[in-house]
Amino acid sequence: MRKAIVVGGGIGGLTAAIGLHGIGWEVTVLERAPELTAVGAGISLWPNALRSLETLDVHLGNLREQSSGGLHDRQGRRITRWDAEAFRRHHGRPLAAIHRADLVGALREALPAGCVRTGTEVTGLDDLDADVIVAADGIHSGLRKQLWPRHPEPVYSGSTAFRAVTTLPRHVELSTSWDDGAEIGVIPLHDGQVYWWASYVTEAGIRQEDPKSYLRNRFGGWHDPIPALIDATAPQTLLHHDLYLLGTPLPSYVKGRVALLGDAAHAMPPFLGQGGCQAIEDAVVLAAALSITEDIDMALKSYDEQRRPRSQGVVKASVQAGKVGPQLRNPLAVAVRNGVFRLLPGALTARIGAGVSGWTPPVPRRPVPPRTP
């Protein structure tokens, strides 16, 4: 039986492990954290990710399909309406969201017991003995640094972001709201929970002594339910991260028997909501490539040829989406942009991004079980 070691127990690493286990490989996931947990935030799963998970027979509970929503300015005036039914008809799947902890839990349950080893830090490749090593160790990947020591480090996107999950005792709908250089997103989750985030253009490294008070002062004048969400959020659950990306594309996602996956390969800003989705895509393509040939080198070459152009294209699209969306600061340009968006019918806005979310995954070939007499 062929063996794979996956370095990193995040969404991409766990999905890769599921894919490789499904094609008959023995898989070990090495995660440096003492427990396999997820940050207290949500994640949007676009149709490309949902198709990929279905291909791997991963079925998610607590998944919340988004049924209505739109894009607004800070006063709550609608810029565009998002047509959920048109979106589903066009893309074949809904836009859905889930708490990251629920997603990580579901991925972990899809793997055999003992497959994941927590509290195990990998500092180099020399001690890893496997037919394939999957480097899914995040944006600041130590394995990427070892393989490409001269490759430029991740760069700051220009925006920082607060994120949280809280509960409101009333209905909220999917929404994104823009102001000059700032964005607030709201996504309802399962069982009354709401995932929200606020990003804005600023210098990197700035931290607030009282983050919740800062958010109240900065965004308390925005439209409902934004002030209520800030007020309902426990201060200790607020997450604050500067947003980085791998600004210089890698020349390859493969070196020897090592395949880079997820943020280690193509970290991107979140302005298209595709970071986790692209990692899930990586995992399916890797499993499919390794399932159709005994030649591992050829399979990894195929993985690189399929994933690098697409995911690096999504990185560029995410950067551009930020520039014309939440990072746009010129008041005149903001007014022109909003005016153009207001002219778009809901059915047309539902088609935006089809080149990304319309992707169809390959299907890994599963091993044929031995025949019993």
From TrEMBL:
Domain FAD-binding: 126-317
Record's keyword annotation contains Phosphoprotein: no
GO molecular function, one term: monooxygenase activity
Domain Pyridine nucleotide-disulphide oxidoreductase N-terminal: 3-37
One Pfam entry name: Pyr_redox
Record keywords: Monooxygenase, Oxidoreductase
PANTHER family recorded: MONOOXYGENASE (PTHR13789), PUTATIVE (AFU_ORTHOLOGUE AFUA_6G14510)-RELATED (PTHR13789:SF309)
Protein name in the entry: FAD-dependent oxidoreductase
Species of origin: Amycolatopsis alba DSM 44262
